[in-house]
């Protein structure tokens, strides 16, 4: 059984996914990590990007210059589309492979843009990490050292809070700061969800 885990920027997806892994040894496939893997040196993804954009797209160490790539596609929709057409199938292929190799009773597929990219149609259950837009802005500004304007632009490009909640099978509210008391509350919620997911895995065994 595949449980999709998603939430907007700054919602705490990684924190909660890690708790599932640490407490219950649940296998995690993280789309952000896969997206980096498919453009590592020597991969078909990076070779194609290098061929398309030229030497400027690489750092002196031969890795992808992400800042330069953002500049190349920021104001050119056709270049952004080219990148998406190249990378999305590679990411999907790698994720399918990793999911096929999981051994825990169910697997967590962590995808930031799960709803936006239609992944919710391919999973068995959707867990949404829900926070207010105000919390998202505050956390992301602190974490990434970016302006509020930038964060709000990202929020506009993502599915709305209402859209995510409308599709959710399960919801964890993660608005509060992660102190020891809050961590215990999260663990209690995660434990209940784990029990539920174990019961739901029976038809898959």
UniProtKB/TrEMBL annotation:
SUPFAM superfamilies hit by this protein: P-loop containing nucleoside triphosphate hydrolases
Main function: Catalyzes the phosphorylation of the 3'-hydroxyl group of dephosphocoenzyme A to form coenzyme A.
Compartments in which it is found: Cytoplasm
Protein name: Dephospho-CoA kinase
UniProt signal peptide: none
Pathway: Cofactor biosynthesis; coenzyme A biosynthesis; CoA from (R)-pantothenate: step 5/5
A GO CC term assigned to this protein in UniProt: cytoplasm
Substrates-to-products reaction catalysed: 3'-dephospho-CoA + ATP = ADP + CoA + H(+)
A single GO molecular function term of this UniProt record: dephospho-CoA kinase activity
CDD domains: DPCK (cd02022)
Pfam families per UniProt: CoaE
EC number(s) reported in the record: 2.7.1.24
Enzyme class (EC, first level): transferase
UniProt main location, coarse: cytoplasm
Binding sites annotated in the UniProt record for ATP: 10-15
Organism: Vibrio casei
């Amino acid at each position: 059984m595949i449980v999709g885990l998603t939430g907007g920027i700054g919602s705490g997806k990684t924190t909660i996914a890690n708790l599932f892994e640490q407490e219950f040894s649940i296998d995690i496939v993280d789309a952000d990590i896969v997206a980096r893997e498919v453009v590592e040196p020597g991969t078909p993804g990076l070779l194609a990007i290098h061929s398309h954009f030229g030497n400027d797209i690489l750092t002196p160490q031969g890795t992808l210059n992400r800042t330069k790539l953002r500049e190349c596609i920021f104001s050119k929709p056709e270049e952004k589309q080219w990148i998406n057409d190249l990378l999305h199938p590679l990411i999907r292929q790698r994720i399918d492979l990793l999911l096929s190799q999981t051994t825990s009773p169910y697997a967590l597929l962590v995808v930031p843009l799960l709803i936006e990219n239609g992944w919710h149609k391919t999973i068995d259950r959707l867990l949404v990490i829900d926070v207010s837009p105000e919390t998202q802005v505050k956390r992301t500004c602190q974490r990434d050292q970016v302006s509020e304007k930038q964060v709000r632009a990202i929020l506009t490009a993502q599915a709305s809070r209402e859209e995510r909640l409308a599709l959710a099978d399960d919801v964890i509210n993660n608005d509060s700061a992660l102190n020891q008391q809050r961590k215990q509350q999260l663990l209690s919620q995660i434990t209940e969800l784990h029990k539920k997911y174990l019961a739901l895995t029976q038809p898959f065994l």
